[in-house]
Amino acid sequence: MDEVFGPLYADVYDALYHEKDYDEECDVIKSILETYGEGPIKSILDLGCGTASHSIRLAAQGYRVAGVDRSRMMLEIAQTKAEAQNVSVSFHHGDIKTINLGETFDAALVMFAVLGYQIKNEDVIQTLRNIRTQIKKGGLLIFDVWYGPAVLIQKPSEKIKIIDIEESKIIRLSSGILDTFRHVCRVRFKVYKIEKKQLLDETFEEHEVRFFFPQELAFFLQSSGFQLIHMGPFPSYNGELNETTWNTLVIAKGV
After folding, report:
1. Residues 6+ apart with CB under 8 A from 1
2. H helices present in the chain, as ranges
3. CATH number at residue 39
4. 200 and 158 in a common domain
């Protein structure tokens, strides 16, 4: 078993998620900042930024953005992307549960189910409290997580994704096993990189991702110095949550 978001997964990450509409998601984030922010939002802390597809777009719109991730290779890719687009983002390697950049931001993001990698209750609370110390009073926290009722009803399924890039091919096989007692889905990924019909590299990763329920999210936020403002489907966050809503968007405010 390889490390989570290891070198090969990081290398092919953007290709695997090329269909993800980051422009739409950043439009949603900007709308939330303008709607719920107390005064102008100028600085954003992007925790678990990955290859910085959110960070770069938001920085290009004029926000001062700092990105944090535990994968050094993803941060290297992020830096290369930012420089290629002539966008300034400060990147930092570290664990979102403990890293402190020594400054205060107007808002914080934890996107693409990153909070779900905090499996234990105490880890969720420690992460949220750490975020709270780095945003101003009244500052916004925006994150998306897997919505428990939908996960339990829909259940994870086996999937295959094939990405063709000129003479190369990336194949990802995924499957999931539910641990309902721990509110965790163990997602197993097998990733193959093929060029000219020859296997160049492969990796096998297992990701434990927690899914959440509304009342526990409200409790975690309240216990960490936040007030829950809104929960809704993601990205159309003004809709109603139901058993088809695998991803929920959460908006909270520092108190």
Report:
1. 204, 205, 206
2. 7-16, 22-36, 53-60, 72-84, 121-132, 148-154, 214-222
3. 3.40.50.150
4. yes
pLDDT in tens, 116-159: 999 999 999 999 999 999 999 999 999 999 999 999 999 999 99
Q: Residue 2: inside a domain, yes or no?
A: no
Contact 242, 147 (CB under 8 A): no
Q: CA–CA distance from 202 to each of 40, 177, 195, 206, 255 (Å)?
A: 46, 22, 12, 14, 46
Other beta carbons within 10 angstroms of residue 76's beta carbon come to 14
Q: What total number of domains does the chain contain?
A: 2
As a whole number of angstroms, the distance between CA 163 and CA 178 comes to 27
Pair (181, 109) in one structural domain: no
Give residue 136's domain range.
Answer: 7-147+212-254
* 229 shares a domain with 198: no
Residue 192 sits in the same domain as residue 246: no
pLDDT in tens, 195-209: 999 999 999 999 999
